[in-house]
Amino acid sequence: MYKYLLIALVILSSCKKQEEISLSQEINDWEFKYEGDWHKAIVPGNNFSDLLRHNFILDPFYGTNEDSVQWVTKRDWLYKSEFLATENTLKKQNKILVFYGLDTYAKIFLNDSLILVADNMFRKWEVDIKGLLQKENELSIKFEAVSEIEEKTQADLEYHLPGGDRVFTRKAGFHYGWDWGAKIAPSGIWRKVTLESWGNCKIKNVNVIQNFLSDSIAKLTIGLEIESATEKEISIQINDKSYPHKLKKGMQKIDILYAIENPELWWPNGYGNQKLYNISVSISDENELIDSKTKKIGLREIDLISEKDSIGESFYFKVNEVPIFMKGANYIPQDNLQNRVTKNHYRNLLKDVKKANMNMLRVWGGGIYEEDIFYNLCDSLGILVWQDFMFACGMYPSDSSFLENVKEEAIYNVKHLSHHPCIALWCGNNENSEGWHRWGWQNEYSDKQKEKIWRGYQNLFNEILPKVVSENSQANYWESSPKLGRGNPKHQFEGDAHYWGVWHDSEPFKNLETKVPRFMSEFGFQSYPSLSTISTFSDNFNINSYEILNHQKHPRGNALISEYMEREFNVPEDFEKYIYCSQVLQAEGVRLGIEAHRRKKPICMGTLYWQLNDCWPGISWSSRDYFGNWKALQYSVQDAYSPLFLSIYKTKNGEINIYGVSDLQTEISDRLEINIYNIEGKLIRSESKTIEIKKNSSVLLSSEKYNLNDDDFIIASLKNNKIKSKTLFLTQTKNIVFPNPEITYYWKGNKLILESENTAFQVYLHGIDSHFSDNFFTLLKGEKKEIEVSRNNFEKNNLVIWSLYNLNK
Ligand code: BMA
User: Alpha-carbon distance 516 to 178, whole Å?
Assistant: First the structure.
């Protein structure tokens, strides 16, 4: 059935001569099949989501269903849609179909003519359909089974490449399964499709270059790419300024100088406002609008400072001349089925990122170049983006067609994102270089093969990609994260580092205090998500049940969690207490690392823990689970990333050191208070002194040896700024006998007021489906604490309150 575009026409662009019609779900019926009958489909989307909607497959996230859906990936899939073109469109001189995302090997037919063969999910494809568009049209797409094409490609190569067959396909790496995610590799039309038509002239691209920036003026070059079928006089309008111009025939680049007086700068979160300016460009002839485009930009300078120094080689970012300590996390895609990630998912996630005092996310190279909304929100919230190109943990082909394909992908994505003030860095790949040099990958190759593979690497990551970045943006480029693997002792002194001695090598958390690199771009520890999240995929609450084991994708994951847990805690037998304990373990372990990194400023200038989020409800390194629930780590990070911060720890020699760490741009003076309590919560010693913390610095405020019992605990605070350190214990939790805290509470509307008879540690509010403004906190004897409880529909009586007392009793 044709949908009458004449009636339901959605004209996305605002001008008269230019028309952009969505062929995605808003107006078009799509159908899909792999054999037999056609069934309704939703575009943008993918085969898994369409199959799920018809109940043709079981929920792949549930139980062990993941195994039962693997056949989907091994089939070819067909999608089709019939649509009518309007008289208006047909009359236009130029008509193209634009596919913003095809996953992955696709043959596209319009009215039975093959118009495109696509082979890269990260590219935008434009196809000229001038002679082919009719009134009634059928668009059909055949997605070929990825595995078959990969096998064929492999057969032509004399050796296997590290990373496996996935490296042949320009498709999200995590679709093939990762150590935190399921193997669910969808195919389909994953981004929108449009039919664009225009007369004889069109703006193809607008690029904004910042030539000069001072308090009084920002000098920009607005670069326009215009395609015109004829020579003609036009007027170019940039915001409220007009420029007459004579167009040539064909594609042309036009550079126009443009200035903004008294500019307001764009700053990362915590350093100032995120002022954004609209650059609206339009072209018209004889007073009629031909085409227009708007870019939202921010005025800022971001430099990656990587210079030899007395320690090794620095790695830090300067924004508007201010060296900025980066506080953040590694980000992965939010779902295997990207169509399920709504605008609200992006808003909620990035709101939480800002709330956690972060200023940087790393978009990791085994995922996707994110949706526009992601970067728009990062722009407006002040979250800098470390953007990996989509290459991770492998070596990639080096034949010319692969490289050409990748080059086009890079050009499109770099251009597409270049105006975003949030983009701080383009990074070539994740761990390919480390893998090649340190993971034994080279062992299986002859010298000639090794040379060929390494030359391919060099060509891609040291020539093609940096060239694309410098030709199409003003962003910084970095070849690989990390610069050096942890097998190379220099990793601690040069560039960025991934420190996985803690976790992969079972090293104690304490090692994070000594192995501090120049910039920690990855480190982390796993935990279980909450019981409510686990309940979505299993009702078999046992860490060794098939369902739960299937949601742990790291081969030694559960064993490592238990091993570390035994070091610190009396491992609980009760399943839910085990979850709680795993979260506290993760939160304290990662926090210890973050604090050490921040204390070492300016030698270390950033910490991005692995990993912020999940793509399914699994057991992983995330601080925020698939459903957006905060694990203990998310709360501890929010605190450990505070701009003004007290870090307390016990040195090897037994001193209690207290550092003041400030990301503020003004000096502060305050009174440091050090309170020591016994385990009953009685204050046994208190001292205070006046301190000063210089702007943007880290300083040792106090270093004392105290004669204390093992189960005493210490809290430091800054009186005027109302900053509190974490609660420092002097021994492992398992050695402490906690008194029953006897917490009482009452509700004041949606506010929860708590009070404790004795001191309670890691107070864990749960049992109701809600979000707590604070959780996993210390509640001192007699202290009253008010907690905001958001989300309305919860049963107040179901609230359960635990603390470390519940683990040890
Ligand atoms: C890092 C990442 C991922 C991986 C994580 C946890 O090195 O780059 O490849 O998921 O470690 O093992």
Answer: 27
